[in-house]
Structure formats: C-alpha cells, structure tokens
Amino acid sequence: MAPPFVFPQILRALEEDPEDNHRLFAQNPVDVTSLRPSDLEEFVKGVSFDLSDRELFCIEDQDVFDRVYSLVRDFYTLPPSCKCNLVESLRSNLSVLLPNVDSISRSVQDQEDEVPIIDRITSHRNALKIYTFFLITIIMTEEAHVSSVESTKVAARGRKKQVVQSWNWEPQRGRMLNLIANSLEINLSLLFGSSELDENYLSFIVKNSFSLFENAAILKDPEAKDALCRIIGASATKYRYIVQSCASVMHLIHKYDFAVVHVADAVARAESKYSDGTLAVTIIRDIGRTDPKAYVKDTVGADNVGRFLVELADRLPKVMSTNVGVLVPHFGGESYKIRNALVGVLGKLVAKAFNDAEGDVSSKSLRLRTKQAMLEILLERCRDVSAYTRSRVLQVWAELCEEHSVSIGLWNEVASISAGRLEDKSAIVRKSALNLLITMLQHNPFGPQLRIASFEATLEQYKKKLNELEPNRPTEDSSKEPTSDGDSCIGDDSLPDSCQPKNGEEITEKDVSVPDIGNIEQTKALIASLEAGLSFSKCMSASMPIFVQLMASSSASDVENAILLLMRCKQFQIDGAEACLRKILPLAFSQDKSIYEAVENAFVSIYIKKNPVETARQLLNLAIDSNIGDQAALEFIVNALVSKGEISSSTTSALWDFFCFNINGTTAEQSRGALSILCMAAKSSSRILGSHIQDIIDIGFGRWAKVEPLLARTACTAIQRLSEEDRKKLLLSSGSRLFGILESLITGNWLPENIYYTTADKAISAIYMIHPTPETLAATIIKKSLSTVFDVVGQDQPQDDTDDSIVDFLTTVQVAKLSRFLFVVSHIAMNQLVYIESCTQKIRRQKTKTDKAAAESQNTEENLGATQENNSINAELGLAASDDALLDTLAERAEREIVSGGSGEKNLIGDCATFLSKLCRNFSVLQKHPELQASAMLALCRCMIIDASFCESNLQLLFTVVENAPSEVVRSNCTLSLGDLAVRFPNLLEPWTENMYARLRDTSVSVRKNAVLVLSHLILNDMMKVKGHINEMAICIEDDVERISSLAKLFFHELSKKGSNPIYNLLPDILGQLSNRNLKRESFCNVMQFLIGSIKKDKQMEALVEKLCNRFSGVTDTKQWEYISYSLSLLTFTEKGIKKLIESFKSYEHALAEDLVTENFRSIINKGKKFAKPELKACIEEFEEKLNKFHLEKKEQEETARNAQVHVEKTKNMESLVVPSKVKEEPVEEYDEGEGASDSEIVDPAMEEAGDSLKASDSEEEPAMEEAGDNSEQSGTTSPHSLNQNTSGGEESESESSNVKRGNRTETSSKLRRSLRSVLVTALVFI
Asked: Spans of biased composition, class Acidic residues (predicted)?
C-alpha cells in the first residue's frame, strides 16, 4: 500500500525527502522543459494512457505520481494540447472516483473481512487528495500565468503583436472547480473517519478558493463563481470550517470591493442549501464586535462592510433580523458609511423580514414590536448629523413606499419629515427628500386625486353616516375591544376597493348619499383613512412655497426635482400645484442646459396635448394669466417648440380659430390670448401672421378692442412681428387705414388710463417699424396731442406766472391729458433716436454691400493690380474713413436736433423738453399732482437719454428728485433711468456714483430693488467700476425683504465668476467699511460668511490670510478686531494658510486680550488640526500654546492697567478734597504777612495767634508729614498732609481762640502736633 499523501506548503516541497518516509513524495521528477516537443508530447500521452487505462488509484504509484508531478510543476510551459490532455485525464479520473464512495459504504455493510475495506478507503482517500491537489495547483498555476500575460498586454498596449491564448481555459477551469465542489458535497465522512475532514486537505481547498475570489475575472464567469460559492458554503457549513472561513470572508470584504456581492451570494447559498446560517451569524457578530473607531480610519473597508450587510439583509432577512441587535450600537459610531449601511439593512428587514403570516399570537406580536422599533430608528436617523446618512434614510423610506411597507398610520409622519428635510442645508438631502415625496405621491394609498375639498366633503359624509350608525350599535359589540379591529384595518397598506371613496368627484351637495361599506368598525377605519389622506394632501399643499423656493436654488438637482415634484402634484391635483408650476417659466432663461430641458419637458407634458384645440386653449389661457416676466419666458419656450415642431400647424390653426371667434364660446380675452401666442410663434416663423393680416386689423382694432382694450396692444405687437414681405403688402393694401387707426389710438381718449400707456408705446413702435417716413406721422401725432391738451384752456382766463395760476391752469388742462401728452412726446423722441441709429446701420450695411460688389467686379486678372493701387491710395488719403466720419457726423447732428435743435431753429420736441424741464422744477405744483410728476419725470429722463447737453443741465434736478420725491413710484422710475443714463453717458454720471449707491438705503422696497438691479446690470456688464461703495450692496444681502436679499446674493454670485473673482480684491475694503457701520453683529457675520463662501481658490484664501492679518496693525477698535478675526475664521485654510497665520503673529498679538478674538483664532486652530500632517500639527499645537499664553498675559496687562486707572481716579478724588483746605489757609497767611483783609470780613485777634502757632507746627512737622506721605503713596492712597492742614486750620484754631492765650503758644503747638498725629493715624486707617 502506498504511503499517505500529505498536502505540502508549496508544490516543490514534494521533492523533499521526508525524514520518516511515511508520506508520498516525488522521488524521480522529470525536467519536462528540457524535452523536445515530440518527446514531451509522447511523455504526456504516456501519462494520460496510464491514468485512463489503469486503476483510479494508479496515481499513488511512485512512477505515475512522479510523472504527473513533473507535468504539473511545469504546467505553464506545456503546449495547449498537452495541457488539455493532462487536465482531462486528471478530471475524468476524479469524476469517476467520487461515485465510488457510495459503493464503499455499501461494501462496508456486506463485507465481513474489514482489512480489504480499510485498504480501499485509504486508497480512495489518498487518490482524492492527490487528484484534488493537482487540479487546484493547475488552476492556480494557470491563473497566475494568465494574470502575468494580461499585465504584459497592458504594459505593451499599442503594439500590434499580442500574446494569443491558444486554448480555451475558462470552460476547463469551471469544470474543474465544479468537480472539486462536488467532491466536498458527497459523504466524505467514511473516507476520513469522521465528519471532520483532514485539516490540511480542507485548508488547502479553502485557502485557494478564497484566493480565486480575489480575481475579478473569475467571478465574472458564472460557472466558476457558482463552484467557488459551493466550495465555501460546504467547507464552512457542512464541515464546520467556520473560524477560518469567517476570517477569509472579512479579509475579502475589507480589501476587494468587487467581491462583496459574490461573498454575500456564497454566504446566502450556504444557508439556503444546508438550512444553517452559522456562517452568516458568525460574520454578522464579528462585524458587530468590531470597534466603531476602526471604521473611521478604514473608509474603504467600512464602505465594503456596509454593502455586504445590505446585500446579506436582502438575501437572508430572517437571519439578519434575529442578529441585527449586535449591529445597532454602530449607530453611535463616527463612520457615516456604517450608519448608511445599517439604515439600508433596516429598510431591507422592514420590507422582507416580517411578511410571514405563520406563527402564534406571541410571535406575531414580537415581530410587530421589532418592526416598529426599526421604523422608529429610521425616523430618528432622519436627523443624523451626517448629510449622507440623512440622504440614505430618505432613500430607504422611498424604497419602503415602493414596496408598500409603510402603513397609513405612519404615512403622514414620513411625509412631514420629508417636507422638513426640503430645507436641509445639504443638496443631496434635499434631492432625496424631493424624490421621496415624488415616490409617496406615486404610491399613495389614498387615491389618484388628492384635492382637499374632495377629502373634506367625503369625510363629512362618512362622519354623518357614522353618527347614524352609532345609536344602533348592539350591546355585545360595546363589550369588545373597540380599537382592535379598527387598528388592524388602519394599519393595512390599502383598503378594499369597496371601501375606497371616489376622491375624484367633488361632493358639493350636502345630502349626497355615500355607499354603505358595512359595520361601524369598517366605517371608522374608512374615516381614519380619509383623515390620513386629508392630512397628507394638506402637508403637500403646505409645502408649495418650499417647492417654489427650491426652484430658485443654485443646485441644478434641486430645480429639476422640484419641477418633477410639482408636475406629479398637478397630476394628483394637489391644491396650489398649478399656480406654482407657472413659476417655472422664468427658469427657461437658465444657463444650465439640464434645467432648461427640465422646464421644456414639463411645459410639453403639461400644456401640449394630443388635441390641437385643447393645446391651443391651454396656451392662450397661460398667456392671459401671465405677467410680463412670464410672458417673456413663455415666448422663449414657444419659439423653441415651434422650431422643434412640438407646436404643430394644426395647433396654429386652432389658435387662429380662437382669435377669429370661429370656436363657440370664445371670449375677447381668449382672442387676445390666442393672438399673443401667435405673436410669440411668429418670432420663429414670421409666415404665421402673413395669412391673417386683415383679420388682425379688423378684429384687433375693431369693436372687440373696446370690449378687451389689451387686444389693440396685442394687435400692434403682431404688426411689428410681420415679415418684410408682409409689411410691403400691408402698406399697399391697408397702409393709410392702419396709420389712421394707430393715430387715433394714440391721440384718442377711449382707452383706460392703466392700459393707454402700454398700448401707445406699442402703437408708436409699430409706426416707426412699418411707416416709410415715420417722423412726419410722428409730428402730426404730437401736434394733435398738443391741441387736445391745450385747446381746452379758455382764452378769457388771464395767464400769469404765479403758482396759483399754474395750479388753475393744470386744473383746466386736466392732468391726465397732460401726462399722456408728455408720454407721447418722450416716447416718440426715443423712437426717433432708435430710428436714426437703425438708418445709420442700414446705410453702413448698404455701403459695405456696394463696396464688396464693386470690388468683386473689378477684381479681374487685368484690373487686380490697378484695384489694389487705388485702394492703397484711398487708404492713404483717408477717403474711406472720411465717409464713415461724415456718416457719424450726420447721425450725431440728427440726434442732437431731436431735443436741442442744432441749427438754432425751433423744433417741436425741443420746445416740449424746455417746458418739461421747467415743469419738473416746480415742486410745489407737482406735489399736488403726483401722477403728473411721475409722467413728467419719466419723460424728462427719456429726453436726457437722448441729448448729452440736456442731460448735463438736468442731472442735479434728477438726483434731487430721486432723493427727495415723496412718491416712491417717482423715485423708483428715476432709479431705473439712472441705469440707462449711465450706459448712455458714463462720463456724465461718473461723479454721481455715490448718489447712485445711496439708493440702496432708500426706505422704499421697490426703490431698493430697482437700485440693486440697476447697479448689478452696470457692474456685471463692465459699465461701472466697482468702487469703494460696494459695501452698500453687501449690506443688501441682509435686507429685510427676501427678494432684495436674493438679488444681492445673485449679484455677488455672478460677480465671483468674472475674471479672477473681484470679490477677493474687494473683501478687505468691504470688511473695513462694514466694521465702521452701525450694523448688527449677526448681519455682519452673515454677510461675510456669504462673501467668503464665494471665494474658492486656495491661493486667494492664502493671500487673504495675510491681508486680513495686516489689517490688525492699523486698527485700535476692539469691534474691528473681533470682525477681522471672525472673517479669518471663515476662511478655508490650507497648510500654507496656517503657516502664514503663524508667521503674522506679531501683527495681531496686541488684539489677543479680547476673548472673542481668541475664540476665533481657536476655531481656526481646530479646523487646522483636522487636516494637518504630523509636522504641521506640531506647529499648530505650539501656536496654540503661544496664543493661550499671550491671551493670558494680555488679560493680566489689561487688568493691571484697569487697576491703575482706578487708582488715578481715586487720587484725583482725594486731591479734590484738599483744595478747600488750602483755600481756607490763604487768608490766614495773607493776614500774617500784613496784607489787608477784605472789608466784609471781621478778623478775631485770637485767629491771628492761632495762625502763627499753625505755621510753627507745620514747619516742625514737615519731615514727618513727607514720610507719612511717601507711605501713603506706596499703599495706593492720597497723602493725608493736606487733610491734617485742613483739620488744624479748622477745629484747633477755633479751640485756641477760645481757651489759650498768646503767651501759651509752645504748649499749644505740642497739643497740635499730638492732635495732628492722631488725625493722621485715623485717616490712614480709614483709607
């Protein structure tokens, strides 16, 4: 019998001679690499013949074993045919060997002699090991060779010559692995003597199987992957190779992300095949025991582990549900990836793990409580600190809604949380919240229509029905649990069709009968369902303002998903959805292509129907209800759709039918809306209007225009949109009639005041568009308008220049007519300017075309040289330039004559402009007529735009009005005009820049809004330099009005995109100016946070660190120190930025005494520690110590200085007490010197003696007093010397004058000295 085969550590270890000679080894291996190809082929055939012709156990024979070993050792060098022969021989022998195990077990029962059976078992075991070893070794060898070839291909990519795989290895690999998997699945306990296999045998198979799992190419082969999963499952589950398999699985999960799904498959298959989840449970518990901090460092491993848990929960929900408790503590870990995974696991478990209806009441109750606990965790995780986790939770809730795993009782809570997350600071969370709401609408259990009124009406009816049923409720029902059936019905995901109310039909009548759905409990359940549906509908309706706000978001995903959600809301008829959808129209101007496409798709799906008449009706209703901004966006979208063919010719025909009243029930307003849409479409296809020119004139200016005055304005717009060819036809056929209509439209009085101005605007523009000589007709219109205004003045009324006479005159003239006249004159002047410029451009184009044609005709071969010579001569003489200069001169002259009159002759508009200027200066009159002031100032601004000299002479007046006018309409209009003037005459407006910025501080909201718009336009289009007043715009970021704040933010957002971001250069100046303003700290912080957030480049951030640090040195105000340090803390610091901050320490060390300043620097340090490398971290820690040290020192210095100041103040207070005593001494000393006393004083001789004694005592006690004074100064108090003088000059002098005579002065002096000492001691103790 052959010695046993022992699995070696490496293949070549089989060549080593064992010491005990009790194992099979290769004694005489052959070097097959030295054989010639023919000899090698004969060698392989001999081996294959022996393996196939002899017994299965011939592999134990030393000769066969040596030869097979030799071929396996150098397998990669064999030619493909030899490889195939060897593999087939080994595989076929093993496949035949495996069924013999069953025959051995049967032989054991029939055989009486056990010796032959034991030998057969040993031989089978030995052969099984050898065949398994050689096959696995071949697989590993070939895979290593294939990997090296693939790497060579990658390195030599681009070369034409590549290594060709000349034999089909993948099918062979799959069959070999399946055979090994089959060998593990049969009953091997008889071969190995017990259910536990040979450790070496099993470890060799498992180790190499997991090694193959590390190859992504093998896992793509379904056959090979299936075999490997079977091997792992059998080894771990059947043969209890758990610990090693679990360790290998964890290694695979942590290191190879592509293997995660396949490992989960292997674990799940093991559980399903053997009905044993030990491997899965062991892995789950191993993950649960891992320290959560480990996943913070290993982010890739955490991601893979999380994916594995989710995949495992999807495949084995019941196993995971019983062991999920060990994973729940990881919710408290710092790794958001693990928390994301656990959220996904809970979602899978809620959807799949609790659907089993079997079991007793207690098990069902336990499952229900477990599910409820998981749902509560999911609700709690919606407020997770990580945005990724919050987003993932919302995605899980969306999946649960799709799976119908959210009960009606929980539906509104989820909807409320999702609506709250719409205002999350993270874009990914908002996106997930929007998607969740979309999903909830799609899968809502309440019905296809969610109108609030419908729910309320149905609910009211069923409540009445319940009230009718309740008195008839049987007594036996009252003894039962009243809420059990109801709760179970409410908890169901959906109600039966018979219980569903018809929400689509609005119930308007109170006595409408409702279907009888059964008993009281079912009625209660239905009412609860209706109440939940009503709450859901109200929640969605209440969220409409947030949806609108999201459409203005800077994130494209917010806008796109908000549009999708609003479309879904409209589909389910949520209240307010249609009105909100109209607000998507301005988004058509978005520069983001995805947003525009979303708007266009939404527009098509909502308004473009299959029925052309319905489409036309939708579009004209949209045009009727839209404001000016929406109409511009609508025109943009309609143009695009007409170009793409989305709006068909049949829809256009339906619009004409609406306009011409060919459809029954058409109103004048609908006719106007249809013409508006046709005008919009004509911008892309001008032929649309050509076929109905006569209808436009007849209907647009006919009797229907009196019913709907805006129809005339729309007709004027249609005339302007006519093509050149259609205009010529119109002039020939109905030109005079049309101009007469337009003239009467402008000079007539039948249009309402609120419509006249826009209609006259369009009419004048139409005249200048199609009339061959518009200035003649314009002059006629001005004269007629003038006559309608001033001919009504009675000739008998005296005219003088007083204000009263002007007021009487205006009353007679009628302010409304004068306002209209001023509008007509100014608008004609503006159109005349535009007409002159268009004529100039037309002449230039014609001249260029003529010159080009002449050049082409003269550029023959004969005349080419002469032509070039003439061109050069003309260029030298400047003839071509002189033509252009002449044209420019004529254009300037024509423009100047509009208002000023270049030739000194009177002109109509010029005289009106003079009158207009005088009228606008008469403030006392205009204050009594604010409507007239609005028209007059608007007309004045238009005249100023036309002529530079007129503008210069009236600029002072304009700024006076824009600052002091009581009407905010006047100030708002003037503010807008300033923008036009700045574009037209920038040099004239440049000195008034500060006054233009001052409009940002106006009390009126409309004025501030217009000021922001005007300045934004001028600055962003490089028409005005960003000067030192930009801080006024920055303050608008914190304006109380949200619209103004949004416009200011938009301005700075767009400004940051220009060049190298001007905000970077402006920020230090803005910071300094805002610090000096009386601005709330919160507002300042918000402004700086927004501005600094718009700076993205690291280099600019690093430069700002240095700039802001340098500002400390020139500032002494603590408030500015705090603001500068706060701005520094907002910067995004890099390694260079931190180093610059540390290097600039000298510039801000004096400010560290302030607590807020130090706190701001500490926040910078904390941010720096998060990304710092070890070297930088050490520098940061050293900087932190230095910062804290200086802070404490500065605080101590401040405290010392404060104490010193207190001491100085006390000293001054004590000195103020000394001043009166000295004043009292002065008369005594003057008297002693012989000076005369005041006539009003009566001097007692005794007082004179007391004064002498005082002088003597003072002179004797002076040294003692100086010493006492020094001591008192050291103790921080005032010297009591003056206090002693006061006492001796008061009390003692009085006692001496009454009791002591002049001869006892010496005794008195000693008493005085004793008294002075006692007073001194008392004063020192007191102080």
From this structure: 1227-1251, 1259-1270
